[in-house]
Amino acid sequence: MPWKNQGGGPWGSGPKGPWGTGPQPVGPRPPDLEDLLRRGQDRLQQIMPGGYFSGIGITLILLIVVALWLLSGFFRVQSEEQGVVLRFGKHVRTVDPGLNYHLPYPIETVLLPKALRVSTISIGMTLIDDPARRGRSIRDVPEESLMLTGDENIVDVDFTVLWRIKPNGVGNFLFNIQNPEGTVKAVAESAMREVIGRSEIQPILTGARTQTETTVQDLMQKTLDGYGAGVQITQVQMQKVDPPAQVIDAFRDVQAARANLEQLSNEAQTYANKVVPEARGKAAQILQAAEGYKEQAVAEAKGQSARFLKVYEEYKKAPDVTRERIYLETMERVLGGSDKLIYDGGPSGQGVVPYLPLNELSAKRPTPGQLPSGGTR
Question: Where is the composition biased (Gly residues) (predicted)?
Fold first, then answer.
């Protein structure tokens, strides 16, 4: 008999230890499993006449086992999952989210991949927990992000790939590739290195980002389709494209110089676009004026030559009369607008003869009713 059941042990009666009384139970005592099993066996014997191993008892047990086995075929597919049912390891069908049923194990089994979820893979950077900031921070991974361009420059590229399982490619996704996430990451890094290796650094750093993303996405999709991976690349996003940290200041100076060059070139082009049309307009105006003067001079010359020919014809008919007429017309044209004095230089002349300016007098003649001084009567 153990010492705790002895009435008079070396430390007294009852369940005591060498340091006093034994441990006392705190709170309600846990149920006794042996007692529960004994009660269950008694009730089962009452239900099964003849005991466990009678014909009826064995049949009832088998029916319960078969029912539980058949009920084990029910399964639920969540909203972002698709159920892939395997019959003896062979893919037989794919089921949509909701409550579904398959033949119980080992006839059929089900796999539940996250076929409707868009997954994200980051290359060149990784997210780590930062207890100091109570969040997550980004850490660069240079062995993934440093790449060589086509003009033998090094560029640091961090990018993100968004991917999902193809709607009809769940079977290929499960059975054709062993590590889907690792495969997508390796293909993404390889495709980006190939595209960067065919490009120069300047377009990558400035305006060719969208074109690079599209090219990488197409190349990744083509490669994964060749693997039969059942993966669809939805988007490639370039997060950071910079030169290496050791030379980034020099690259920024070069970028600033190129920006200034482009600005000055645009200003010069703007000035040229302003000055050249004005010069062309002035040149066209001068040409038109010269053309007009040419036409006028030619027309006047032709008119004068025609007039001369007509005068010459008349001159041949009556030379004296024509000569007199030409003289009078010439003197009228020369002396018509000048002041004239008549000088009598004969032997009986008086010298300068007063000349009555009839034209001026007629111009200054007062109107009827007006005095010569400008007044009125």
Answer: 1-20
In the chain, the amino acid numbered 294 is K
Q: What is the pTM of this model?
A: 0.49
Q: How many CA atoms lie within 13 A of 75 on its CB side?
A: 21
Could you report the per-residue pLDDT of 277-335, keeping only the tens digit for each? 999 999 999 999 999 999 999 999 999 898 888 888 878 888 888 888 888 888 888 87
- Please tell me the distance from the alpha carbon of residue 10 to that of residue 135, in angstroms, as a whole number: 62
Q: Which residues of 178-190 are buried (b: 16+ CB within 10 A; e: fewer)?
A: eebeebbbebbbe
Picking from 189, 199, 136, the residue whose alpha carbon sits closest to that of residue 158 is 189
**Beta-carbon-side half-sphere exposure of residue 350 (alpha carbons within 13 Å):** 3
Give the tens place of pLDDT for each residue, 79-113: 777 778 888 878 777 787 778 887 888 887 887 77
Q: Which of 167, 163, 162 is CA-nearest to residue 82?
A: 167
125: three-class secondary structure by DSSP: strand
Which tokens go with 132?
Answer: 């100091």
Q: Is the CA virtual torsion 202, 203, 206, 210 positive or negative?
A: negative
212 in Cβ contact with 195 (< 8 Å): yes
Q: How far apart are CA 302 and CA 43, in angstroms?
A: 143
Structure tokens given for 55: 């014909």
Where does the chain have alpha helices with state H? Answer: 33-47, 55-71, 142-145, 170-175, 180-197, 201-205, 209-227, 248-317, 319-335, 358-364
